[in-house]
Amino acid sequence: MVNKIDKIALFGGTHGNEITGVYLVKKFIKNPDLLQRSNLKVLPFLANLQAIKLQQRYVETDLNRCFAPEDLENLDTILYEQLLAKNIHKKIQENQVNFLIDLHSTTANMGLTIILSDTNQFHLELGSYLSLIEPEIKILHYASAQKNQLLRSNIKLGITLEVGSVPQNVLNADLFMKTEKIIYNLLDYLEKFNQNKIEKKSHNLVFYEVFKTIDYPREEGDIIAMIHPNLQSKDYEPLHPGDPLFITFDGETINYEGNATVYPVFINEAAYYEKSTAMCLTRKRESYVTFN
Ligand SMILES: [Zn+2]
Questions:
Q1: I want to staple 12 with a disulfide (CB 3.0 to 4.6 A). Which of 21, 173, 178, 236 is the partner?
Q2: 175: CA distance to ligand 1 center in Å?
């Protein structure tokens, strides 16, 4: 059971070319009053300064895959991001952070997505509260194989915010302002939570659970088909067995051959070409959440 949240770390620029989070954190560093709440201490951080300067996702390796406990303890890791991960981990420990927010953006059409790495009661109540205020919010449960490698995984509680679609190194004012508002609503929630002032409510929370990733069709490692036009930008929409999935360069359609309806996300995410991921498939779930 969670009793009190008092130290919050807010990260932007974990990926240097996702600049919604970078400029939000810069704004908060200049205007700390915006993050002030009666019983919270919020620490804004720019995670990967070198990558931000270079306008790249990372310098040597993806920072958001460097936090596995065995890697943090490994003295032989020498890449820029591997060393950075150790510093960030230390900072989180030293500051006794008990809630973490990690700001990302995506080239996929995922709107305002809150990613939860697990669906404990605290996270579900928080997700319900935020999506009741802002119905555009989608809740994505992503317990990936790499989940302990993520910056978010440094502590038990927190969320990753993923907003899009927005190209890399581009600011979209609407997404910027909506992300900012979610942060304020989240801080208000945590402040009230500490005061035991969350209004009692019941809510049927819809969330999407990632169960599989799909790669592009390839020959000898080279991509031979693209996301089908019917599927492009259709994140969170139902994909039925037999629906078009990819189209080859000769115009031949490749259909989805699963046996149940699924809801793809991260469709055609630019950063995932190197990760052999054309999209993630999710199942739609519902949970009846009661606040008390
Ligand atoms: Zn990212």
A1: 21
A2: 15
Residue intervals of the chain classified under CATH 3.40.630.10 are: 7-206
Q: How far apart are the first and last CA of the chain?
A: 13
What's the 198 CA to ligand 1 centre distance in angstroms?
A: 31
Q: Cα–Cα distance between 82 and 77 in angstroms, integer?
A: 6
Residue 145 CA to ligand 1 centre (angstroms): 17
Q: How far is the CA of 75 from the centre of ligand 1 (A)?
A: 26
101 CA distance to ligand 1 middle (Å): 13
Q: What is the pLDDT of residues 165-212, one digit of tens each?
A: 999 999 999 999 999 999 999 999 999 999 999 987 888 999 999 999
Ligand 1 geometric centre to CA of 14 (Å): 7
CA of 195 to the centre of ligand 1 (A): 33
User: pLDDT tens digits for 112-139?
Assistant: 999 999 999 999 999 999 999 999 999 9
Residues 7-206, CATH architecture: 3-Layer(aba) Sandwich (3.40)
DSSP code string of 97-155:
--EEEEEEE-SS--EEEEEESS--HHHHHHHHHHHHH-TTEEEEE---TTGGGSGGGGS
